[in-house]
Design a protein that fits this description.
Elements (H helix, E strand, L loop, with lengths): L6 H6 L8 H9 L8 E4 L13 H10 L3 E6 L18 H11 E2 L6 E6 L6 E8 L7 E5 L7 E4 L1 E4 L2 E4 L2 H36 L16
Parallel strand pairs: 1-2
Antiparallel strand pairs: 2-5, 3-6, 4-5, 6-7, 8-9
Length: 218
């Protein structure tokens, strides 16, 4: 499900709610700079190179590993010029498949949405990437020096570009994931105990149990 509060909402002073084409157009006209949670792309996502490496997967994983964000296709990153995309060329199922094939763990909340101007002349594609509690997400591809060697890297967004996690960043990311999981489990136990106490307090005192004697036959 797409988020209702994004970098564009903040920039435009808009109330929380669905993102629309006019918001994208206004942000582009303002030349809103790229950041760790906003990435302008001129062209639609491209197929994996050599069937092994996919830039879309890298960009999605980088945002999921940071704090989430928007990847908007149809806007030049250097000038923020709205060039648009051909909506007939959009293949959301294929994009989702690329991410499933190249990113682990799986990202279930990623959404792709085509937004079109009211006159129908210009469209953009928006990938909404929530921050993931399962970070870090690794991107699987091919090592540059050996086409048969699979490699896995963990990208992240740093201001307006994508970088690669160093060992100490990966260690911290995994530690944060385990901490989140532990806190979630503790919260579930706490809520369960509270529910049990509440139900027990509302139940009437148990009535004395009756004893039935089974007659003995001689």
């Amino acid at each position: 499900m797409a988020r209702s509060w994004t970098r564009l909402h903040e920039h435009l002073g808009a109330a929380p709610g669905p993102l629309d084409f006019d918001m994208v157009a206004k942000a582009a006209a303002d030349r809103l700079a790229e950041s760790d949670d906003l990435d302008w792309k001129e062209q639609l996502p491209q197929p994996p190179r050599d069937g092994r490496w996919n830039e879309l997967a890298k960009d999605v994983a980088a945002m999921a590993n940071t704090r989430g964000g928007l990847i908007i296709f149809g806007v030049r990153d250097a000038t923020c010029e709205m060039v648009g995309i051909d909506p007939d060329e959009v293949n959301i199922e294929q994009y989702a498949q690329w991410v499933r094939n190249h990113v682990q763990p799986y990202l279930p909340d990623l959404t792709f949405t085509v937004l079109t101007s009211t006159d129908g002349t210009t469209s953009v594609l928006v990938a909404d990437v929530p921050a993931s509690p399962m970070a870090p997400h690794l991107v699987y591809g091919t090592a540059a020096r050996d086409k048969d060697q699979q490699a896995a890297v963990a990208p992240y967004r740093d201001r307006d570009h994508t970088a690669w996690m160093a060992e100490h960043q990966l260690e911290r990311a995994y530690r944060d994931r385990f901490t989140r999981a532990q806190r979630a489990e503790e919260e579930v136990h706490h809520l369960l105990a509270h529910a049990q106490e509440t139900v027990s307090a509302q139940l009437p005192w148990p009535a004395p149990s009756a004893r039935y004697r089974v007659p003995l036959h001689a």
